[in-house]
Amino acid sequence: MSNHDHNPESRRRFLRIAAGTAAAAAIAGVLPKAARSAGLPHLLPADPAAVALGYVENTAKANQAKYPNHKVSQDCSNCNFYKGAAGSAWGPCQLFPGKDVNAKGWCSAHAPKA
Ligand code: SF4
Predict the structure, then answer these.
(1) Is the backbone of residue 91 left (phi > 0), alpha (psi -120 to 50) or beta?
(2) What beta strand segments (E) does 1-114 contain?
(3) Which pLDDT tens digits describe the chain residue by residue (114 residues)?
(4) Cα–chain-centroid distance for residue 67?
(5) CA gap 111, 81 in Å, rounded
(6) Cα(94)–Cα(78) distance, rounded to whole angstroms?
(7) Which pLDDT score is estimated for 28?
(8) What is the C-alpha to C-alpha distance for residues 104 and 62, in angstroms, rounded to an integer?
(9) What H or E segment, with its residue span, contains residue 4?
(10) Ligand 1 centroid to 94 CA: how many Å?
(11) What pLDDT does 1 receive?
């Protein structure tokens, strides 16, 4: 060991650097998580789960012959399963975990917001 290791100023500097490194690591660990929650991958209409429920990214494009109860006024933004922020173009849907659906989209599970 050298005298340098016992120098109080040197120790304080080391602790400041270590604290800064820990803070930077904590921020780096948090930011990607926040970025992920801000935007999930979009649900593709060709996804088998989407096909099964007749999901479309634009409610006007719903298959009216197959889903005669569909109304153009129904879309994901006014569906009870939609958890996107008001005014957002895309947001999570409880029926399609890990994916964002289009706020103007629709699927046959549409349920009016309670
Ligand atoms: S359940 Fe609702 S929010 Fe989810 S895709 Fe269907 S219409 Fe959109």
Answers:
(1) beta
(2) 90-92, 100-102
(3) 444 445 666 555 545 544 544 444 343 444 444 444 469 999 999 999 999 999 999 999 999 999 999 999 999 999 999 999 999 999 999 999 999 999 999 999 999 998
(4) 28
(5) 7
(6) 13
(7) 40
(8) 11
(9) helix 3-6
(10) 8
(11) 42
Closest atom of ligand 1 to CA, residue 101? 5
Pocket mutation for ligand 1, best pick of 94, 107, 108 (most atoms within 8 Å of C-beta)? 107
Residue type, 58: N
At which residue do the structure tokens 């060709």 appear? Answer: 46
Residue with tokens 């970025």: 35
| Residues present in the chain in total | 114
- Residue 84 structure tokens: 């996107």
Here the contacts of 66-73 (C-beta below 8 Å, separation 24 or greater) are 67/108, 70/106, 70/108, 70/110
Q: Which residue in the block uniquely carries the two structure tokens 């939609």?
A: 82
